[in-house]
Amino acid sequence: MFPIVHTRRLSDAVFEMGVEAPAIARKAKAGQFLILRTDENGERIPLTFSDWSAEEGWIRFIFMRVGKTTHQLSRMSAGESLADVAGPLGVPTHVEGLGRVVVVGGGVGAAVAYPVARAMLAAGNEVTVILGARNADLLILEDEFRALPLKELIITTDDGSAGRKDLVTAPLKELCDAGAVDHSMAIGPAIMMKFCAATTKEAGVPCVVSLNPIMVDGTGMCGACRCTVGGETRFGCVDGPDFDGHLVDFEELMSRQRVYADDERLADAEYSRECSCHT
Amino acid sequence: MSHVEGSGAPAPAEKPRHRPARIPRTPMPERDAAERARDFEEVTLGYTEEMARAEASRCLQCRNATCIEGCPVNIDIKSFIGHMIDGDYYDAVAVLKEKNALPAVCGRVCPQEEQCEVACVLAKKGEPVAIGRLERWLGDFDLACELEHRCVPEVGEDTGFRVAVVGSGPAGLACAGELRRFGHAVTVFESLHAPGGVLTYGIPEFRLPKHIVQAEVGLLEEMGAEIRCDVVIGATYTIDELLTEEGYDAVFIGNGAGLPVFMGIPGENLNGVYSANEYLTRANLMRAYEFPKADTPIWRGRKVAVVGGGNVAMDAARTAKRLGAEEVFLVYRRTEDEMPARKEEVHHAHEEGIEFKMLCSPAEILGKDGWVTGLTANRMELGEPDASGRRAPVCVLGADFTIDCDTVIMAIGTRANPLLAQTTPDLELTKRGYIVADEDGATSKPGVFAGGDIVTGSATVILAMGAGKRSAQAIDEWLKRTAE
Question: pTM above 0.90?
Answer without folding.
Answer: yes
